[in-house]
Amino acid sequence: MAYSLCGGTNLNLLPHAHGGLRFQFKKAHHGLSSSNRAAALWWSGGDRSGFLAGTQLRHAIHCQGMSIRHGWPDKKLQKTIFAAMPLAPSSLSDREERNRISEKYGFTQIGEPVPDNIILKNVIDSLPQEVFEIDDTKAWKTVAISVAAYSLGLFLIAKAPWYLLPLAWAWTGTAITGFFVIGHDCAHKSFSRNKLVEDIVGTLAFLPLIYPYEPWRFKHDIHHAKTNMLGEDTAWHPVLREEYETSKVLRAALTVGYGPIRPWMSIAHWLGWHFDLKKFRPSEQNRVKISLTCIFSFVAIVWPMIIYKTGIIGWIKFWLMPWLGYHFWMSTFTMVHHTAPHIPFKSPESWNAAQAQLGGTVHCDYPRWIEILCHDINVHIPHHISQKIPSYNLRLAQDSLRKNWGKYLNEAKWNWRLMKTIMTKCHIYDEENNYVAFDEDLPEESKVIGFVRRMMPNIA
User: Fold this and answer.
1) Is residue 69 within 8 Å of residue 12, measured between CB atoms?
2) Is residue 115 domain-resident?
3) Has the keyword DNA repair been applied to this entry (predicted)?
4) Same domain, yes or no, for 137 and 45?
5) Is residue 225 located within the same domain as residue 354?
6) Over 70: is that where the pLDDT of 79 sits?
7) 41, containing H or E segment
8) Which residues contact 30 (CB under 8 A, 6 or more apart)?
């Protein structure tokens, strides 16, 4: 059976080996008319119906010469009706729609869109002044907690039988994530009133992670200034279509990186962003060089000592495995902070600071022991409202935001469904739908995403 859609696109319905029908699009000429941008393919059959909407349809009929897209709208189709029609995007202004996608994505609340007339200063001014106060006792308490937890972790690794080592590594990796949060506060000038102390503590806190403090600080400042700004944000960023279409090898790497190994993709970010002097302005390079010297000196001194005392196996046990545990949290925390199907990346022209920081940041609750060891880094919305809030005051600031701006907040409890949503849906940037999943775009080259979708539990 063949159908003709708008813009000269042909639709064929083909028998499928597993029963039912599959659909196949063909389009022979280049370029899509503006009408196709708003087009939707509606199908219905049996007791199911659905849409392949605007940009999804555009991707489906991809116009680079003759391209073909396959799909399976319903495995039990008996009768199918197709039509091209305009389709309005779902609105987050509707409470029922927010509740529906909140349940679907693994959130406890999806906030209303932040109105254009709210500016970031309005939100900052609503916070009590005490949340900005630096308390040296509380700051050094976080250092004591991290040092004690890390020391305990190393002791457990040394004493644990082999079958308990994964638990020891999980504890130790979480403990050294606390070191990162301490350095993070130092970089934001919210650890101490003495800036030299902050630079020294921040540098030392990052050493066990082999993370150069100053290069990270410079790039992280951009993340805060341009959160969820397309092409500018230096944290998690959607895959751009022109990047995705560069080569088959790159597509394969991105599919694996943004799919099954996404909880460790911060390793690629660490390598790619922080060791190349050419990525920094001339005014920044001297401080970058100091940080790199500290890191390379640490590696040159501490790694041989570990290997001398414990061998290569000891280096793996005492350093590498906890470091991989740290990167699991680094990747997981940062992707949950700003990545969800309903959270858009905006072009610089349409970007709005209040919408990005208040409505584009996610508060996520983790088990309490993780929150303690990681110094509440996941109470993240107030941190994006103002980076001057110390980690020990974030909960007080979050309480204030809930009281004054609660209807705009995105909140979740860490769960399988939340992770599954991010890892299987949030891939290629799409102006209309925010994201297109790899296997929606090129299913034959993205089977690993389907595998992840099948294997990960859908438990919220």
Assistant:
1) no
2) no
3) no
4) no
5) yes
6) no
7) strand 39-45
8) 63, 64, 65
